[in-house]
Write a structure and sequence with these properties.
By secondary structure, the protein is of the alpha/beta class. It is globular and about 85 Å long. The structure holds flavin-adenine dinucleotide.
Length: 640
């Protein structure tokens, strides 16, 4: 017999370590002790099973104890909770939860892969039978069964992190009216507020009732329902409640064994993932990691790191001298039609470190299309990247319908390999019109960042506009007049980009010119023209589109729905429906087309517009209101 390795926890990190150990060492004795009834299940798939997207419960069970035991010759013991570690004698105390018996198990090496558990704060009334957390298969079964038996029509999801959002979406798919409660002013904490606003808008369009900046004070039973009392004095009534307010590491075992923990309860390990006891390794959600960007200590509970760490611990136990270089928090979540991804630090985290915008870090915002605009079906996305004055990428975020994961993965890879913004300009990425553009959105981010560092772009963020002295600046809107009808930043004057060279005399040379267009590109061109003529100027990052989403207040707004736009000339009776396909058009294309079509239409005719840009519904509505037309409805469509 070779060495004996005991693994506590048999899901992501634990199962991964066990399989790798066996592949490296056929003679090792490997024991998995798992307190639950399942090993290696797909935690990440649980919300989709509840939503009916994953149809079969069995699909969630990636491995059974029997299959894993058979294939890898591993002694897998479920319903077996480790309650103590005797480090001196290298033994763990195991409680058989089925029989209620306790026994000792010896080890040469111990791997702690105990994961984390959902936080359940002592809110009064939290013990009600229709209030659930979602973490494992039994939780999932409970929720499923409750839904089948009680047929709930309304749900409150508490917590706007990725599990809360996935649950909100999946419950909505099951036909429930969903309210989301989040204590922070935004959902998805890894995003900057302005990026999260795109999610807020989308949640609102999808009919989710958003309650931001408020927490739960109390749960009260009212008949068969639960009244969720909020800290802002309001209440929400629901047939069921999902709690998804964060996780805490399962480190009591490590703590009782005298291993070192950080202030959040994360187990301290060295770069080999060894605790201070050389025979005990720890991996996954339960450990503190170094952040890849700057080496600072962090808790980053994600499946990818847990799986990789399991493998590294196994490698080291088998004498391979592998190190874990840190986590960067790369994550992605689907939210109805949107994909939301991020890697590295966001702006709040940078500022918490004392870094100052415009000095210690810079940011660029870009609103490209997922692929060449002339090829059918390009989808808009929003990318944001933070970087240091030396060009090091500090973090990036992306929200959109298509190609978002790919862009964040490329950025995460560049970060992992030590590249910076300049390397983004050099990346040669796969291109053909259905997939990307000859200058991929990631290349474009690199060009933008390069320009910022070279002083060729001076940008201003939407949240800096309020601090400007109106007597010292000119706010210049370089969009076409028709776009101005969609709304404007108060106080702006309009000179379309193509007229700027001839009308520059209208601008006061003693004032700084703050330029904006729809998404930032024409604004950039305008700042180049203006700076060549000696004007001090800055371009609004992300343009009016990004500004408009960022400044909206989605708290407490009644949810809406929809997508297909129908605009009519003010009559109640419709004589003819004219169709317009505005999918994938570059701004100001779609609204120009609407304008052209409407000009040629008769009173009483209705224009039905098919669009892919999620910002277009608001534009069309604003345009209709400004031009005396009537906006009839918007609805989602599978067409196109
Ligand atoms: P786990 O996989 O949680 O395994 C720990 C195991 O240890 C548990 O089964 C537990 O029962 C067992 N255990 C604990 N204490 C003891 C003990 N004393 N004795 C015996 N056994 C013990 N991450 C992503 O990256 N992407 C996603 O899309 C994603 N979606 C998720 C969706 C949901 C609903 C959930 C719950 C999690 C999701 N995660 C996602 C997080 C991801 O699942 C975790 O980061 C990952 O599983 C952590 O791996 P781990 O091995 O550290 O812990």
């Amino acid at each position: 017999m070779g060495k004996k390795v005991v693994i506590v926890g048999g899901v992501a990190g634990g199962a991964s370590a066990a399989a790798r150990l066996r592949r490296l060492d056929e003679s090792a004795e490997i024991v998995i002790l798992e307190r639950g009834s399942y090993i290696s299940f797909a935690n990440c798939g649980l919300p989709y099973y509840i939503g009916g997207v994953i149809g079969e419960r069995e699909s969630l069970l990636l491995q059974t104890p029997e299959k894993m035991g058979g294939r890898f010759n591993i002694d897998v013991r479920i319903n077996s909770e480790v309650t103590g570690i005797d480090r001196d004698n290298r033994q763990v105390l195991v409680r058989n939860l089925e029989k209620g018996t306790t026994y000792k198990e010896s080890y040469d090496y111990l791997i702690l892969a105990t994961g984390s558990s959902p936080v359940a704060p002592p809110i009064p009334g939290i013990e009600q039978a229709n209030i659930f957390s979602l973490w494992n298969i039994p939780d999932t079964d409970r929720i499923k069964e409750y839904m089948e038996v009680h047929r709930p029509e309304t749900a409150v999801v508490v917590g706007g992190g990725f599990i809360g959002l996935e649950m909100a979406e999946n419950l909505a798919h099951q036909g429930l009216a969903v309210s989301l409660v989040e204590m922070l002013p935004q959902v998805m904490a890894p995003l900057d507020f302005d990026m999260a606003q795109i999610l807020h808008e989308h949640l609102f369009q999808e009919g989710i009732d958003l309650n931001l900046g408020t927490g739960v004070k109390e749960f009260e039973k009212v008949g068969r329902r639960t009244r969720v009392r909020l800290s802002d004095g309001r209440h929400l009534d629901a047939d069921m409640v999902i709690l998804a307010i964060g996780v805490k590491p399962n480190s009591l075992l490590a703590q009782k064994a005298g291993l070192d923990l950080n202030m959040f309860g994360g187990v301290l390990v060295d770069e080999h993932l060894r605790t201070k006891d050389p025979n005990i390794y720890a991996v996954g959600d339960v450990i503190e990691v170094a952040h890849l960007v700057d080496g600072e200590k962090a808790m980053i509970p994600l499946a990818g790191p847990a799986n990789k760490q399991g493998r590294i611990a196994a490698d080291n136990i088998c004498g391979m001298d592998r190190t874990y270089r840190g986590s960067q928090g790369t994550s992605v979540v689907k939210l109805f039609d949107l994909s939301v991804a991020s890697t590295g630090y966001n702006e709040k985290q940078l500022q918490k470190k004392g870094l100052r915008r415009g000095q210690d870090y810079f940011s660029v915002v870009s609103l490209p299309k997922s692929h060449a605009e002339y090829y059918p079906g390009p989808m808009p996305m929003t990318l944001k990247m933070h970087f240091s004055p030396e060009g090091k990428i500090l973090g990036a975020q992306a929200v959109g319908q298509e190609g978002v994961d790919k862009r964040i993965d490329v950025l995460a890879t560049v970060m992992r390999l030590g590249g910076g913004v300049h390397q983004l300009t050099e990346l040669e990425l796969a291109y053909a019109p259905p997939f990307s553009s000859a200058k991929d959105p990631v290349n474009m981010l690199g060009f933008m960042a390069d320009n910022v560092l070279a002083g060729k772009i001076t940008a201003i963020s939407w949240d800096e506009l309020g601090g400007l002295d109106p007597d010292k600046i000119v706010l210049l809107d370089v969009r076409e007049p028709i776009e101005v009808q969609l709304g404007q930043i108060p106080g702006a004057i309009n000179i379309p980009l193509d007229q700027l060279r001839h009308r520059m005399g209208e601008l006061d040379p003693d004032r700084e010119i703050i330029v904006y267009c729809a998404v930032g590109l024409r604004g950039y061109l305008a700042t180049r023209i203006l700076s060549h003529h000696g004007y001090a100027c800055r371009n609004l990052s992300g343009g009016f589109r990004f500004y408009q989403t960022a400044v909206q207040d989605f708290r407490g707004a009644a949810p809406g729905s929809g997508f297909r736009q129908v605009v009519s000339g003010g009559q109640d009776t419709c004589s003819r429906v004219i169709e317009l396909d505005a999918c994938g058009m570059q701004c100001p294309g779609p609204i120009m087309k609407v304008n052209e079509k409407m000009a040629a239409m008769e009173e009483g005719e209705v224009l039905e517009i098919l669009a892919t840009d999620p910002g277009f519904p608001a534009d069309a509505q604003a345009w209709a209101e400004k031009t005396g037309n009537r906006f009839i409805s918007r609805e989602k469509s599978d067409r196109g």
